[in-house]
Structure prediction request, 961 residues.
Amino acid sequence: MTSKFKKMAVDCETLVAALKAKFADDIVRLDVREHRGGSLNEVQSRDLWIEISRTAFRPFLDFLFEYDFVDFHVISGDDVGIADAVQTQTQSQAQDQNPDGQNQEKPQEDSVLLHYHFSLFQRSRCGRMGVTLSVRVPKGDLSVPSIFDLLPGSEYSEREMHEMLGVEFVGLPNSALVFLPEDWNEEIKPWRRDGVGPALEALRELS
Amino acid sequence: MSTTYTIPVGPVHVGLKEPITAWLELEGERIVNARVRPGAIHRGIEFMARERNPIQVIYLSERICGICSFSHVICFIRAVEDLAQMNVPVRGQYIRSLVLELERVHSHLLWSGVACYTIGFDSAFHLGMQMRERVMDVLELLSGNRVNYGVATFGGVRWDVTPELEKALRGMVRYYRQEFTPFREIVMEDPVAQARMRNVGVLTRDEAVRYSAVGPTARASGLRIDLRKSSPYEAYADFDVEPVVPQDYFGEAHGDVLDRFAVRVLEVYQSLDIIEKILDGLPEGPFVEEANLNKVMASLKKADGTGWGIIEAPRGDDTHIVSLKGGVDNVLWWKVRAPTYANAVSWPIMFRGNELADAPLIINSIDPCISCMERMLVTDEREYRSEVVTRSELVKRSRQKTFELGSLKSKYVPGGGAEQ
Amino acid sequence: MISVFILFLKIFAGMPLLALVVLLALLFEGADRIVNAKMQRRYGPPLLQPVYDILKLMGKENIVPRRASRFFFMTAPWLTLVTTLMIFLYIPTGSFPPVLGTEGDMVLIVYLLAMSGLLMAVGGFASGNPLASIGAGREITLMMSYEFPLAIVVCTMAWVAHRLGLPGEPFSLEPFAAVSVWKAVGKTGVMGLICLFLSLVLVVPGELGKGPMDIPEAKTEILDGLIIEYSGVNLALFKLTFALRSFAMATFMTALFVPVSLGSLLGVSGFIVAIFDFIFFWAKVLVVQMIFVTLMRTMFGRLKIWQASQFYIMKVAGLSIAGMILLSIDVIAR
Prediction:
């Protein structure tokens, strides 16, 4: 399995340029955030925030695996709904100057936004780059390819997203509940903000 | 004999600090298969945060865990600072790093004690618990609390390092340099402890990468990762922190429980060095950017977007992702990934080929931190029913039972019965 | 007919002794807990804590699991207690001969010790709990491992006593009380005795389920194993049995290897001296128990069952065989 983890380490600009060259049409949004700290207030690490269309998700990951090892952290996600999707869209357009605004004309669907958090280049000092890969999954077809085959460590994250948001991970061998109790009604997805979420009267005040 | 039988370790087990269930399929004493089921204590903290504003969530995040409470706070605060572009004064950064290191010392001491307890080495357990008191005293001197410190806030910290505290800290560092070495030698050179921990719960380096192991668990497998080096946050930018890996000290990394023990023990020394460096280089100046919480709240209300905070907690990297929405008080959503969340995936691999006697030790070896939940399951086999009882109902039922017992007794007490 | 009457008389006479033994066993366990706590820099419980525990448990109800085999589950604690208590009828205390000295010998003591262990395992199996079954299985595995060195120690000692012509019945413990075995053998013999003594010391934790060998009751692994389902009076009986077993092993070791008595030290005899010797004997037992039970269990963690088994079958058995050979050379060569 070692062969899967390459040792190629590049700096942030090179990586961003390579990504833009390869996935120009699929990148919806791309920011780089710098983290400063210490008494000299120098840049200590960078985070790459990138949103990509669902079709390019697996090719993008395979591309990422060309670099020094991909350390998986977690999947986070939210039910963004319709209104939020439009708002995030316009805002991201205002923030970065990426001229890839083809998606602007697409009608926004009611969807769930998943964020995959990875780290790259952790071997050198101040070299780490956090990569947040966001994928918008429309509620009509709530499914993404599982990354369990690449990184089995993602199992709990994928199962959690399945039980909390109802996203189907294609290729995940075991999608049983992780954190919710065994007698939980699987129809209810706690983190959803629409009808699938827990009803108000179902919530009990825990002290 | 080839019949297997299934034994649960947990949810409540003497060898485990917190409830989690491992269903072990055994053949004699050997573990053939293992299935881990968390969730006995899921409190839905992330859901609760949606009804609270970021400042309230600071104190909620502190209650995720009783040991690494400060790590979760800092991680949450860094995520919010990341999205709202807040600055932290250098002195504030130093004090944050200081408390983080104190917490690491605290956590590692607690863990090494508990590991000894798990293998029945009670003397070392009591020694470890006794040593841990000193760092808790120092933390109490700093914040007035022993577990949830309430030290951090947005843009800095709430308490300053006083000369009195600095004296106590230096005394503590001296104390540990003196007392900790005998403890380490007692355990690591003990033949019984070695027999119990060597080649138990092995996680190889490749598996550590594939299964996303973090922190001391990954480092014990020989993986040279430490966020304090690769992305220095807070005051770590000013210090060079090298990841502690067993191959640097013992020649090779086995990735077993003894290596995890060694890594944690050696990290205590590293933390003591860092605490001294922080005290030596503590800059003057303000320790918080904006002390008025109303102003902070007003600026956070305007913030919009998603932030990612990631730090090296004692058990591994702690990740928080927070999303705020402009014009809304409350947190939009929040995702917490405690280090155990990542390490727990590796449990079934660590179990393979080991024995029942090793199971609690293996579960404990990643230093699990499984939070608590006010919820319990009542089952009655005869009636084939099971239900979830919340705390208020439990209290009600207990009172009911006590009342019944009381009235039962009063029947036989002359002059004291309710029916008279 | 008369012999039966005498036997009953003896057992009747043994009653005060057994009462004393129960009390002392509990007090010694209290001392054990205090010393253990002090070594771990704790305060520890009061001396009478084991007595309080037993009294409290005596007042609690017995809960029998639905899946348990009721008969064995309920009788095992009683039988194991009685078996353990019987051991004290065969051990000489100070200058007093054992109560049932003529009715049994060292082999019987070893048998009774094994019997009470086996009965505990029966109780564990009967409780129907898988963890208790594992504990019982471990108890039996452990027993099979340590019985061999123990048997070698006992047989060698008896044979040596017989060959050296120590007064008293062969295989009885009486000769060892009267004449110090350390003085009766030559230099090679002393080395052999040391080997045997060490073997016995190493067997003790296994026999008692304490120290590095608390495997059948491993609290953090199988939640007290054998006794997991026991409660109330039954649990009190088991607690008492555990205390008595520690005490019995310490007494056995003292009688066999620490024959120093006040009377022989001062060269006097008489009834008063015998009384003092009686007290002195229990003091010796206390010292032996503190050193070889308390210290051992404080110093080490817990082994795994196969490690313990290997340790007894390979190392301790080897040590005891070496002791046997050395002693034989000494005795035959003289």
